[in-house]
Amino acid sequence: MIRSELIQKLTDENPELTVPEVERIVDLFFKEIVDRLATGGRVELRGFGAFTTRARDARTGRNPRTGEQVPVSAKRVPYFKPGKEMRERLNAMGESATDA
Length: 100
What we know:
Layout: H1 3-13, H2 19-38, E1 43-45, E2 49-56, E3 59-62, E4 69-72, E5 75-82, H3 84-99
Antiparallel strand pairs: 1-2, 2-5, 3-4
Helix pairs in contact: 1-2
């Protein structure tokens, strides 16, 4: 699902809201997640999962075209850990798909 599909689904399920209102809600939702992660925080959505960041150390990488060594600076990267409900649902779906 892409952002526009999410907005359309929310608009369809909430006819009292206009498309611009739903867009503002979706934008605010994602902005708050990013803002919290940017300050080193954690975002937990019960039944869905938790967003955090992880530190990556500086290292020496390679340019895949030339093979030349290049420095890669330390950085923080987003990390998502699915919640128990999501894991159970995904595993239940996988079992029914392999049974067919």
